Amino acid sequence: MITRRSFLKACAAAPLVAALPSVAMATAVTPFPLTASKTKKRLVPGDGYQDASVWAFNRSVPGPELRFKKGETLSVDFLNQLDEGSSVHWHGIRNINAMDGVAGLTQPEVMTDGQFRYEFPLKDSGTYWYHSHAKTWSQVARGLYGPLIVEDETDPIVDQDIVLMIDDWLLADDGTIDEASFGSLHDWSHGGRLGNWLTVNGQSHPTIDVPKHARIRLRLINAANARIFGLNIPASAFLIAEDGYPTPVQPKQDVVLGPAQRADFIVDLGDTNLTINETLNGGPYPAVTLNVIETNQALVTKEILKQPRLESPPTSIDVVIPLHMQGGAMGNLREATFDGQLRPIRELVQNYGKAWAFNGKIGKHHDHLAKINIGQTVSIEVWNDTRWNHAMHLHGHHFWIQTEDGEFLDGKRDTYLFQRGEKANLVFIADNPGLWLFHCHMLEHHAAGMAGVIEIS
Ligand SMILES: [Cu+2]
């Protein structure tokens, strides 16, 4: 629940004109420079508030929109001007392992003034994002994220393609980032760092101009550390993709996005403004308003949206990885193994800041959940035996979700939001060699033990 009064101010704040800060068309030949540094940003408008000290890519939060076409090569020269190590992860991309950007696993962290060139082919179209993958609970919370969009020639034709990166910030009363709460053991063992200030594309309740009666594509991205958002689009809206992967096209006005999840909608606008509300956290809170305007722009013909051809899930499984998730506040974890030693939960929390376990072990990047042969079909049989939701993310692959009754959900995802107590199988074909992280994208949970590595060779 959002109870802090400043979150409520999000609805009262004057709308601002906003679009994403800049659009960068990177090409395969010239690496695009992406620099992480500290900068100032006004998060709360109005007198009596101050600029927040954010950490940003190219001095902007979100970072620049990187937009490519399927089949192109992403080439980015990352420069770290922070005073601590960092890296860039390309969330949801079925990447080359060495380009996956997990500091301490797929590469050493890029130290201060260090550089790293990320270069890889973009095999999948859809809505993705990039973010720091070092001390994420701090670096992502401070603003180190941006959108990565891969277009396909078969995409529905629209008049406007709009990325909406949704975040919640935990701010002090003066509008600066609440520094004292970083590392809070309470947050780490409960629901994570939950904010009190809602932003879309870095602004509170922005307004985006769109042509009257236009067909638009909305790409929603949850960039929050831990907040689950519910978004309502009160219009003629069709869900077409989740986590970049196509879903059966269906009329839909509501979507729940766990941390790191994305959803793409095609929306046919009328002649009135459209406000998208956040509805899951005590609101509704207006998140963004699409302001319809008269233009001379010739509008596209609104063709009937084609149903995608979806890959069928496998009918047999080669390897099962049982994954019993335990821990957290009000949980049943009494003790767990950490650094090779069985320790009581109280000691783990107080001395090490660890609160969650996979199969009785506090997860680390060096713990392998399984070694898999390339090409095998794998089922991670997850039991969320905790009192909390978890947004489980597998790097380098997209997975099907098989519910407890054996049915597969439509489509594939890279991040699945488990409800408390839920059992489900994440099924994937291990066709990408390397060391792949599997972790909770509630970033405090990850830091407090919800992580492991699947080795594929
Ligand atoms: Cu979690």
Question: How would the blueprint of this fold be written?
Answer:
Elements lengths: L4 H8 L3 E2 L5 E2 L7 E10 L10 E6 L7 E5 L3 E8 L7 E4 L23 E7 L4 E7 L3 H4 L5 E7 L8 E10 L15 H5 L7 E4 L5 E6 L3 E8 L6 E4 L3 E7 L2 E7 L2 E4 L4 E7 L5 E5 L6 E9 L25 E9 L7 E4 L2 E4 H8 L3 E3 L9 E5 L4 E8 L5 E5 L5 E4 L11 E4 L4 E7 L4 E7 L2 H5 L3 E6 L1
Parallel strand pairs: 1-13, 2-5, 3-6, 5-10, 11-14, 13-21, 22-27, 26-33
Antiparallel strand pairs: 3-4, 6-8, 7-9, 9-10, 11-12, 14-19, 15-18, 15-20, 16-17, 16-19, 20-21, 22-25, 23-24, 27-31, 28-30, 28-32, 29-31, 32-33
The structure holds copper (II) ion (CU).
In a nutshell, what does this entry contain?
The chain is mostly beta strands and 457 residues long. It has helices at residues 5-12, 136-139, 185-189, 345-352, 443-447, and strands at residues 16-17, 23-24, 32-41, 52-57, 65-69, 73-80, 88-91, 115-121, 126-132, 145-151, 160-169, 197-200, 206-211, 215-222, 229-232, 236-242, 245-251, 254-257, 262-268, 274-278, 285-293, 319-327, 335-338, 341-344, 356-358, 368-372, 377-384, 390-394, 400-403, 415-418, 423-429, 434-440, 451-456.
What does this structure look like?
The chain is mostly beta strands and 457 residues long. It has two domains: 5-293, Immunoglobulin-like, CATH 2.60.40; 319-456, Cupredoxins -  blue copper proteins (Immunoglobulin-like). It is 7% helix and 43% strand. It is built from five helices and 33 strands. The chain has helices at 5-12, 136-139, 185-189, 345-352, 443-447; strands spanning 16-17, 23-24, 32-41, 52-57, 65-69, 73-80, 88-91, 115-121, 126-132, 145-151, 160-169, 197-200, 206-211, 215-222, 229-232, 236-242, 245-251, 254-257, 262-268, 274-278, 285-293, 319-327, 335-338, 341-344, 356-358, 368-372, 377-384, 390-394, 400-403, 415-418, 423-429, 434-440, 451-456. Strands 1-13-21-20-15-18 form a six-stranded mixed sheet. β20 (274-278) and β21 (285-293) form a beta hairpin. It is globular and about 70 Å long. The N and C termini lie far apart (44 Å). It binds copper (II) ion (CU). Copper (II) ion (CU) is lined by residues 390, 440, 442, 445, 450.
